[in-house]
Amino acid sequence: MDDVTALRALLNDSDPRAGATTSFPDRQRARTKALAMLDAAPARRPLWRRIPVLAGAATLVAATTAAALVIGTAGDGPGGIPAAYAAPPDPIEVTGGAPEPGAERLLALAESAGAGEDAPGDGDVAHVSSTGQELLTVTSFAGEEPSDDDLRSAGFIPYDWQYWQGPGGDTREIRVAGEAEDTRGDVEDHQEFLDDRSDDFESTLHESLVLPRDLPTDADALARALLGWGQDDVPADSPEADGALVNALNHLYENRPLDADERAASLRVLSGLSGVEYAGRTQDPLARDGELFQVRIEEGSQTNEYRYVFDPESGVLLHRDVTLIEEEPGESALARHGLELPVTVSYRTFLWSGWVPGIGDRP
What we know:
The chain is an alpha+beta fold. It has helices at 3-11, 24-36, 103-114, 191-195, 219-227, 241-255, 260-271; strands spanning 59-64, 94-95, 100-101, 125-141, 151-165, 170-177, 181-185, 199-204, 277-283, 289-299, 302-310, 317-327, 343-356. A hairpin with a 4-residue loop joins strand 5 (151-165) and strand 6 (170-177).
């Protein structure tokens, strides 16, 4: 028995995550973060990435429920920051009947998007300004095994994000957190972790995470590029392909602008997901008219519903939210944090997306 196996055997009984199933998007996100930090100097790594220690607890696990609501603008400049959702946010209202198959409508929207305008701005650095909210759950394990006596907290935290990425993979992200909304559980014991979420982080991405300035405009070619993002090379016919594509599309929308042909290609990729539906006409949180599409993805022990609101003419993404629909019982289940499914766990609003001359520049 080697040292690693012996250590795992020794710690297995006290590991709160022992036997837990990790979804493909979670594995891909973890890989992405690890690769992004390979070339970063230790002095530049942010404090929030360090393992936290809570007084009186033997082990603390902080899990941010990942996924965001994305809202994009097709205008020439930043929009005003909308009022924060009450947390957890109520679903946006949809005009229409029952959801219907959405592939044909997405393909028609792609045709319209391809005839639209390219991303605004000049330069080689992608800049995305956004605002939104994410659910943070914190659990403190006071003993060798998880129990009902462990301290648990949950809070919906509003954020403002500024993100830059240069052509060589140099990045900067400024994340400013607001006061946690709708906190639950043993919040006073975890207040430090609920409050200290702001960060200014610079890094250099691994080359496998750097997408080209000009993305493929053929849907099949773009899908292959997205499935290979992060060195995963997920086969297009594998059960994990839809989850991988959704995760990569979300990353694409959140971190770089798209020209008209690229937006059209991304819509065609979305149209190929199994079970994608058209839910009807709606308005996003900024009162912009849009069309709502949704798709459910099974991710390990969870089923999440991803909803996208697109501008009906330009195909620009106006809104995305993620709702946890189903989950298997376990230590990390939201029910143990006082939340009842379904729960909208994250959303994001794009205030501006385009090109700027250098990292740190704003439009």
